[in-house]
Amino acid sequence: MQTVLAIAMLLIPIIVGMVIGTRTIIKEEVGREVDQALDGIAYRIDNTLLNVEQTAAIIRDEVTKHLDSPRELDRLCRNVLETNPSISGCAIALNPDKYTSQGKPFMTYIHRAQGGSIRANRQSRTLLASDTFTDKPFTEQIWYTKPIEEGVASWVGPLRNEETEKEPLISYDVPIVKDSSVLGVLGIDMSLSILTDIAQNYRTSTHSYITIIDRDGSYIVHPDSTRLLYMNGPARLKDNDNPSVKEARREMVEGKSGRRFLTLDSTRYLVAYMPFKQSAYPKRKLDSLGWSIAVVYPEKELYDEFDPGFRLAIIMTLAGLFLLTVGAYVISRISLRPLRRLMYVTKIISNGNYRLPGFETSRQDEVGRLQTQYNKMLQSVSRHMEQLQDLSQKEDAAQNALAQTYARTQEIKKQRAAFFSNMTHQMADVTAAIQNSVDRLNESGSDISDDETRAALESIERNGHRVTEILNDMLNMKG
């Protein structure tokens, strides 16, 4: 288990490093996806603009051939709208100093009828003809004056409010040149809803959105597409007082690229932005439109594509570590089972029980060898303990015999003492009797009668025999 813990301690920093490294890789991958989304939307928009530019270049060459035929100019404008659904209107305005129609400046304007929705089929809308564009004379409108003054084709707009009719437009305006003279302007309009559709169709996730900002900070493409259709002017970024939004807006207006996280309405978003630049093609004049493209992703949705796999990897790693710990614990329990048995046997032996059956093992590892040697030791100890027990039993028997002998000896001593005491008293009585008889004989002298002398002598003889018997008994007791 210590080994497993050591491995775990080594794996934990590795897992933490893997988590940090993986999150870094995910962020880099997310950054690449965001950049690809920006590049993709810029490419789609640029292709749409290039399509309009190429259409304008083709029509301009035809216009110079029919400057004296208003009917043909009108037909050319219709052909533009019929063949290109991205185009909302086509206008040809000629120099009033050289061309007039019915006593007023000549202009033909063919445009699609306004639909109820920006997603209505533009190609199926009715084409309407007009000789004016808004209420102002075309000679006072920027789509006409700019190419006349600069002498080059350029994008103008977005045209809003009084500059356009109901729908915000961008206009690609080409000067009509013949014999080095600018004779008029070919203007081709494209609705901002085209760009909105491109942005809507190019979203890479459900809740992400794409916006395009003009050089003045106003929206060309707004997350809420209806705001570009039905408001007097597109909403401006400056309407938001969030400092992070202001900083992002400033960098976008300045034409900078960047990525930053913003928190709006308690939701965290990743905003990536870059300036829109036209791609270089032969004979194409690159124009700085001053647009900035931004993609906005909810952070949670942004990482949803990667988080399941990332979480799965973390779960699998932790599960592997858990299984490693459990497996090591189970293996250690199985491997150390003989040691636990040895500990159990040792505990029993320490309690004084040496009569244990031996146990065999077929293991050849260190634990098996230890178990074998322990088994031999146990058998040897058991034999020695049996011998010691036998000796102890014999010693106990000898001690019991000695104790019994000692007890008998003490009893004999007590009996002998009592016997000698009794014999001593008896001898004292007998000797006293003999002494009395002798004393009586000595004291009587010649006055004693023969019978008395004979009685005294018989008493002495009898008591003498008694003394002899007592002495014999005492000698026999000693023996």
Description of the molecule:
The radius of gyration is 65 Å and the shape is rod-shaped. With 479 residues, it is of the alpha+beta class. It has 11 helices and 13 strands. The strands form 3 sheets. Strands 5-4-1-8-7-6 form a 6-stranded antiparallel β-sheet, with helices on both faces. A 5-stranded antiparallel β-sheet has the order 10-9-13-12-11, with helices on both faces. Strands 2-3 form a two-stranded antiparallel sheet. The chain has helices at 2-63, 70-83, 142-150, 192-201, 226-230, 243-253, 299-304, 307-335, 337-350, 366-444, 450-478, and strands at residues 89-94, 100-101, 104-105, 107-112, 127-130, 154-159, 169-178, 181-191, 209-213, 219-221, 258-264, 267-275, 292-298. A hairpin with a 2-residue loop joins strand 7 (169-178) and strand 8.
**CATH architecture annotation of the largest domain:** 2-Layer Sandwich
> Total domains, how many?
2
Low-confidence stretches: 116-121, 225-238
Biggest beta sheet summary: 6 strands, antiparallel
Kindly report the average pLDDT value: 76
At the first level of CATH, the class of the largest domain is Alpha Beta
Terminus-to-terminus distance: 83 Å
Class of secondary structure makeup: alpha+beta
Using the CA coordinates, give the radius of gyration.
65 Å
- The number of strands is 13
Report the sheet-strand fraction: 15-25%
Work out the helix count: 11
**Helix share of residues?**
55-70%
Dominant shape: rod-shaped
In CATH, the topology of the largest domain is named: Beta-Lactamase
Order of helices and strands: HHEEEEEHEEEHEEHHEEEHHHHH
